[in-house]
Amino acid sequence: MLDQRSTADEWMDDMAAGEPEFAAALDELGRINRLTFAFNPVLSWLDRLVRQTGATELSILDVGCGGGQMLTAIDAWARKRGVAVTLAGLDHSPWAARYAAAQGVPARIITADLFDLDAAERFDVVLCNLFTHHLRDPDLVRFLHWSEDRATRGWLISDLHRHWLPWGVVWAGFRLMRFSPMVIHDSTVSIARSFVRADWERLLAEAGVQAELRWVFPFRWNVGVIRG
């Protein structure tokens, strides 16, 4: 079942999903992210980028930002580190910006398909946390080029490792915790759509992009570039 990336659809990607369902799912995903330390791989990578580049100011774009929980975590990280940040999030859902505004997320939220973003938009850092598994392989190869073009100091993709252990834990655990049907469905589909090392090696080779590929806790792959 997990030998190859799944192409099954996630309910959250359905543009017909209503705002109440979307908001409820984002509430639960925020809880899941805290329980699974989902932000740590990104924040640790930002620590490395600041150490290696000496940057004290950064403009950061979070692609597939959802309700903006990652951006809120980055804002807190930046305050602790004394780094001045200008934050932006990109999401195709019309409900993401409304949810982020209601939560007081300190960022500009852009509602658009990522490949339709204004060509003039550039950022020091482009981040993508738990999003690329939503993309089919050809679009993911295109996104690797996109990230290379849009990020001046570095970019990072942090996404799930496709493996039977997290799949089984999520399948059972989310039912016991009585999460919403959307989150229960999408959680295991997300893992089935995600990656093993060979997937990333093949996709990077197809894109002709050189990047660091690192397995990180808990069952994540970090794929990224730091410049300078």
List keywords for this structure.
single chain, about 230 residues, alpha/beta, Rossmann fold, seven-stranded mixed beta sheet, about 45% helix
Structural description of this entry:
- This protein has helices spanning 19-35, 40-53, 69-81, 96-102, 137-150, 164-176, 181-192, 197-207; strands at residues 57-63, 84-91, 108-111, 123-129, 151-160, 212-216, 220-226.
- The protein is built from eight helices and seven strands; from the N terminus they run H-H-E-H-E-H-E-E-H-E-H-H-H-E-E.
- The radius of gyration is 17 Å and the shape is globular.
- Helix 5 links the parallel strand 4 (123-129) and strand 5 (151-160).
- The chain has a domain at 38-161 and 195-226: Rossmann fold (3-Layer(aba) Sandwich).
- A seven-stranded mixed β-sheet has the order 3-2-1-4-5-7-6, sandwiched between helices.
- The termini are far apart.
- Helix 5 packs across helix 8 and helix 6 runs antiparallel to helix 7.
- The model has no long low-confidence stretch (mean pLDDT 92).
- It is α/β, with parallel strands linked by helices and 228 residues long.
Short description:
The chain has 228 residues and is an alpha/beta fold.
Helix content: 40-55%
- Broad CATH class of the domain at 38-161 and 195-226: Alpha Beta
The fraction of residues in strands falls at 15-25%
Instruction: Name the structural class.
Output: alpha/beta
Q: Could you describe the largest sheet, including whether it forms a barrel? A: 7 strands, mixed
Count the DSSP helices: 8
The average pLDDT value, as a whole number, equals 92
Distance between the termini: 41 Å
So what's the overall shape?
globular
Low-confidence stretches: none
- What is the spatial order of strands in the main beta sheet? 3-2-1-4-5-7-6
Look at the structure and name the CATH superfamily of the domain at 38-161 and 195-226: Vaccinia Virus protein VP39
What's the CATH architecture name of the domain at 38-161 and 195-226? 3-Layer(aba) Sandwich
